[in-house]
Specification:
CATH superfamily of the largest domain: RNA polymerase Rpb2, domain 2
Helix content: 25-40%
Strand content: 15-25%
Distance between the termini: 74 Å
CATH class of the largest domain: Alpha Beta
GO molecular function, one term: DNA-directed RNA polymerase activity
Number of strands: 9
Number of helices: 7
Family: Belongs to the RNA polymerase beta chain family.
Radius of gyration: 29 Å
Number of domains: 2
EC number: 2.7.7.6
Protein name: DNA-directed RNA polymerase
CATH topology of the largest domain: Dna-directed Rna Polymerase Ii 140kd Polypeptide, Chain: B, domain 3
Oligomer: single chain
Pfam families: RNA_pol_Rpb2_1
Structural class: alpha+beta
Amino acid sequence: MDFSAQWTDLPTAPSLKNLTDGKFGTLKEKQHPAIQDLTRAHIESFDQAVTDGLSRVVQSIPPLEFTFRNDRISLAFAEAAIFPPSVAKGSVCKEMRVFPAECRGRRCSYRGRLVEMGGYFVVNGIEKVIRMLIMPRRNYPIAMSRPKWKSRGQGYTQYGISMRCVREEHTAVNMNLHYLENGTVMLNFIYQKELFFLPIGFALKALVNFSDYQIFQELVKGHEESSFYKSCVSEMLRIVSDEGCPTQSKVLDYLGERSG
């Protein structure tokens, strides 16, 4: 097929006729699909953030529990809503609604629940757009070698497994499993902006109500002939036992006392 006909009758110089057209700036009834796809990620991310995303964030906030006059009280957020942008109470004006163009000119923020297509991020008069970042695959373990991991402490090696754990409301926590020189594994994670290092044996016994023998049998499946691997698993369980934590409840009490 000859496509040369599509490249005929092209303008030889730039034209400003569209700028002088009386309909310049007026949106057409049907937008160009390519232009809509260009901003689709921005639009859908915003819509998700102020609807389902906001609801999931509220649900993930743990309740505040305390005792008052021998009664156990629990306070929790049930729902959150973002109201439509409007002028402050007490202002004298004919139009209570606030529009993005006004925020750009006044160098203020466009706040509130957005119902028109697309949504706007205007902060201090500057319009923001969502920047797409390349992030590690969520909830997927990646084995890697990083020389800087050896500086974590005595006995650490450059080998480990990293995983970016993401919850339903899209909050994320990076977790690392560090391989140590003695064959054991150390779990590294951040909780409430604090860095924790936990021998993997404590994490296993805290998550499942299994005996040491049951955990050992599960971990060595497929490696029954490897004496080195079995000795590493035994050492990880022995570390927990040496701290006086033979059961799941003991491990949870042990961790709770040290994290409080």
